[in-house]
Automatic annotation (TrEMBL), chains A, B:
<keyword id="KW-0032">Aminotransferase</keyword>
<dbReference type="InterPro" id="IPR004839">
    <property type="entry name" value="Aminotransferase_I/II_large"/>
</dbReference>
<dbReference type="Pfam" id="PF00155">
    <property type="entry name" value="Aminotran_1_2"/>
</dbReference>
<dbReference type="GO" id="GO:1901605">
    <property type="term" value="P:alpha-amino acid metabolic process"/>
</dbReference>
<dbReference type="InterPro" id="IPR015422">
    <property type="entry name" value="PyrdxlP-dep_Trfase_small"/>
</dbReference>
<dbReference type="InterPro" id="IPR050859">
    <property type="entry name" value="Class-I_PLP-dep_aminotransf"/>
</dbReference>
<dbReference type="GO" id="GO:0008483">
    <property type="term" value="F:transaminase activity"/>
</dbReference>
<keyword id="KW-0808">Transferase</keyword>
<keyword id="KW-0663">Pyridoxal phosphate</keyword>
<dbReference type="InterPro" id="IPR015424">
    <property type="entry name" value="PyrdxlP-dep_Trfase"/>
</dbReference>
<dbReference type="GO" id="GO:0030170">
    <property type="term" value="F:pyridoxal phosphate binding"/>
</dbReference>
<dbReference type="InterPro" id="IPR015421">
    <property type="entry name" value="PyrdxlP-dep_Trfase_major"/>
</dbReference>
<protein>
    <submittedName>
        <fullName>PLP-dependent aminotransferase family protein</fullName>
    </submittedName>
</protein>
<feature type="domain" description="Aminotransferase class I/classII large">
    <location>
        <begin position="53"/>
        <end position="379"/>
    </location>
</feature>
Amino acid sequence: MKYDFSARAHTLLSSQLLSIRTQTRRGSMISLAEELPAEELFPLSLLAETASTVISADAGALQYGDPEGYGPLREWLIGDWLKAKGVAVAEGGVLLTTGSQQAIDLLSRVYIDPGDCVLVENPTSPGMLQALRMQGAVIIPVQGDRDGLLPDHLRSQILQHRPKMLYAAPSFTNPSGVLWSLTRRKEILELCIAHDVLIVEDDSYGDLHFERYNEHPLGKYPSLYALENVSDGGHVLYIGSFSKTVAPALRTGWAAGSRELISVMAAAKQMADWQSSSLNQRLLHHLLDVSAFDLREHIKLLNREYHTRFKLMIELLKRPAWKQSSYELPVGGMFLWVSLPDGMDVNALLRCALGKGVAFLPGPLCSVNGGGQYIRLNFTHPGRDELLLGMNLMSEAVTEFTARS
Amino acid sequence: MKYDFSARAHTLLSSQLLSIRTQTRRGSMISLAEELPAEELFPLSLLAETASTVISADAGALQYGDPEGYGPLREWLIGDWLKAKGVAVAEGGVLLTTGSQQAIDLLSRVYIDPGDCVLVENPTSPGMLQALRMQGAVIIPVQGDRDGLLPDHLRSQILQHRPKMLYAAPSFTNPSGVLWSLTRRKEILELCIAHDVLIVEDDSYGDLHFERYNEHPLGKYPSLYALENVSDGGHVLYIGSFSKTVAPALRTGWAAGSRELISVMAAAKQMADWQSSSLNQRLLHHLLDVSAFDLREHIKLLNREYHTRFKLMIELLKRPAWKQSSYELPVGGMFLWVSLPDGMDVNALLRCALGKGVAFLPGPLCSVNGGGQYIRLNFTHPGRDELLLGMNLMSEAVTEFTARS
């Protein structure tokens, strides 16, 4: 039969994201395209032990759980993890989701009607852009610099577009790696409070602060949520995930904020898939709260290793092929956001790179409009040898294209 | 701040489903309301062993996976499980989802625009109704009897409403437990093919066929998908789940059908949550394809036990309290759908029952409109003692209400 898809299903079909992901799964492909953590650093043996213990102990671990997520893990998040970050959340103010992407999708579904204006950092997360487009939002970019969004531009966009929401990732914006300054954080928060704009603060990358792995980041870079310091009725929904800090396959992210927002999102969650895996949530809770695993120490380990890989990538970008390229140096996150010479067609470059066996993410996927001369490179997943080989292949591709233009 | 939710978020807020679920999670409550399998029968030790083996063996088990789901599990589904049911699926024709509910939600999002007409059995799955309402569908009920949907009524509803889709569960409809006859299956399928109506066939309960646990059900009750026998471009999307047959906490369901439909749903899946837990999918695959676990034997065990519990519930329904109630006797599924005396307010009855410590599902949650004199009782989760106590409390509640009216 001829299938008659919904109007907005077509926004998904034109997505390049899925096809890049599919191609990078081929065995021999080196992927600098994705958001993958280093597999070598997963707490394998502790998780294997945990899984065996948790499943043997209680048949309830295999039963349906709460739509909001496993209670003890929510309590641990509220009482331990978030509290230590200055993020005060009331009981009932956390929803566990299938990664932070689901938190974003659920919020979009319960908060955005077709035609509603939403502000985003530009460039921004490809996943957020997809969710907003599927919801029929009018997406308005806000300009930023190396210190974060520009308050003047934000103000003028608010006044012109009357947006319902601002999506931002102040700590290591995906893809640019920008870490907003404290002043900027305060200015942006004040503007949104003054104009009643809901801020969706995505802190999925915030712990990956590799130059300061021995220093508590709370003092210098508090989240917008912590700055507002209202546990209920506030202007910030705080989103995070264990995908980058423990393991993605556990598919556990969260949204934290006002009970009113969270309860509506929980109802949407129940409608969407009843609940995420309570088995995974129990494994995480046991790992974090009972086993010998120490998440803070583990994050330090990740940051030391990611810093090393980052420095290697920077060295490799000093080669002649990249002479006309430019980039800022982030102090965390998972990506380098590289500006290529004017006029370079990044989609043609991608085809060439894929032919050589390496993948990257083209800038337009992270941009409301444009982004055509940018590419996003991931430095956390490939190990030393893979990074060397992958960057050699990338250099070849860039050289070929620079010669042509 | 005052949150300004999307228009259809309000369809979720008025949902009684979430509040019943929340209440039944209280420790002392006996729940006859939910769709829970018997915990005592979960393959605990095999799964504990499996988890330890799978996680220790390969760090890839904790990494991001494919949006479509873990390849070897999809292959097992296509090449073993579905094939044996006469369900022929092409490679690329299966999407793994977070339970069958997510398959339903994703399909609704990519196929239904606000105002589109969708036909449903009446009564039908509360989860399906929620997903359709959230999507803004116009939901049209089709009448049925103990053999399945009535072809004449289906034809007239198709001609009058020009629906895009029919949602049906021919094998043990939730909540009524109807098992469609072969003739009816053929008639309904032919009508939908003739009028190009997509059928969403939910077979989540199809294996729970407790009177015929020693007989292969394929011969007598083939799925609509198997009857059409087209692996690509067909009129049926076939939906199922491991939640009822292995364990719900693994949150693994699937949609199988035409590659075109599946690829669009996979794109929506990626937008919604990137992917379900590939760890859980690997655990399932190892359990089903490598370990000593035999799913077919396990299902026979479930059906023997569920049949015993079913017979006990039937016995308990012979008590005087239920004299004016009526019900059909299903030969499978998880529920009894009981019609109470005219004029009984099932929502008031629910409040009374909850006060006594027992929960059931009120009929209106399963109905497009009406359903007010029905209740749904689950017999698979409570063990013998719990069933006795729960049904005693239910009898008390019903007696009180019958005396009043």
